[in-house]
Amino acid sequence: MRRFSLWMKAHPMVGDTLLAALIASFDVLIFVARVVTDPSVEPRPEPWYVTLPLVVGVVTPIVFRRRYPIVSAYLVLGVGIVHSLLEIGLASAITSCVALYTLVAYVSRRAALLYVAVNVVITLVQTPWQYPHDWVVTLIFVILATGFSWALGEFNGARRAYNAEVERRLRLLETERDQQARIAVAEERARIARELHDVVAHAVSVMVVQADGAAYAVHSQPELAERAVKTISSTGREALTELRRLLGVLRSDQASSERTPQPGTQSLSDLAARVRTVGLPVQLDIVGNVDDLPAGVGLGIYRIVQEALTNSLKHAGHGSSATVRVERTGDRVDLSIVDNGYRVAGTLVGVSGGNGLIGMRERALVFGGTLEAGPRPSGGWQVRASLPFGNT
């Protein structure tokens, strides 16, 4: 039923056609009832070739009332005059009310007021002549029907205006949210580029120093020169890997600032100790050798753990604790940061929400990795990441 309602809303002409057919069916039933009654009963109906065209003519404009509301309203009014003079049925009165409702809800009060004025003039001229004894009752009925149609149109128009405003604000919020996410991603990528600048600069500095040393020792100490050349080779390969991973990362104008040495996996113990002093007990488990990881990967691991523990400090609550597990398996490092804070349990979901989570995801994506964050089924929060670091 819900799907059918949405389909009808998307195709309003179908609903208007059904409405027109329903109104026409009343007049057809009235015509048939008059035909089958005693011929002596007055008034007798008009012939079918007069009645049916007038019925169709007065209801057909209703089908197009949303697309051409003003034209449809006055067509209904024009055909309705003949329809009511011949006393064929109720279609002229009903369609006139529908036309007034449409003008109020979809056009403007001015257009509706003009339509009411024309309708009142026609009614004041036609009613006393057509119903000399009951024209007051007829006039009261017309006034009540007009007032009801106007009120219904006002209500629907206000609801449509409210829905339009809500939809406009939702679109504005979605646009603002997308812009904030793009800004957060751009800022985080700029920060990543600024931090990894130190990695590449360090590698180049090592290569220059080793090259100078090898140049001086190549004749007097060939073994020392050979070791220096090997160091240059390994450092160059590592720097080339970092440069390839950084391809596509845009740097901001502030990229030349804040060139301080950056932490890596060797600093995780210090990070855990600092968090413990703040008040969050942290258990750090490191499985495998993570000391010889590329500097960029080590920096990414450190920042992900740092951001996850910072979130735990902010949101886990008093008395909670956290567990950090860093496991190296071949050419991949798996991270797991879990706390037992007072968050609602639920299914692990993709990264969304704050800029911190966006930043962690971008750090993982820079190295071709993945990151997921979300509530644990048993309570608390968890962050899981996987970072490959093999040479590419």
TrEMBL record:
Its EC number is 2.7.13.3. Gene3D superfamilies: 1.20.5.1930, Histidine kinase-like ATPase, C-terminal domain (3.30.565.10). The chain crosses the membrane at residues 17-36, 48-65, 71-104, 111-129, 135-153. Residues 299-389 form the Histidine kinase/HSP90-like ATPase domain. It catalyses: ATP + protein L-histidine = ADP + protein N-phospho-L-histidine. Residues 6-160 form the DUF7134 domain. GO terms for cellular component: membrane. It comes from the Bacteria. Residues 188-254 form the Signal transduction histidine kinase subgroup 3 dimerisation and phosphoacceptor domain. Pfam families: DUF7134, HATPase_c, HisKA_3. GO terms for molecular function: ATP binding; phosphorelay sensor kinase activity; protein dimerization activity. Coiled coil: none annotated. SUPFAM superfamilies: ATPase domain of HSP90 chaperone/DNA topoisomerase II/histidine kinase. Keywords: ATP-binding, Kinase, Membrane, Nucleotide-binding, Phosphoprotein, Transferase, Transmembrane, Transmembrane helix, Two-component regulatory system. PANTHER family: NITRATE/NITRITE SENSOR PROTEIN NARX-RELATED, NITRATE_NITRITE SENSOR PROTEIN NARQ. This is histidine kinase. It comes from Actinophytocola oryzae.
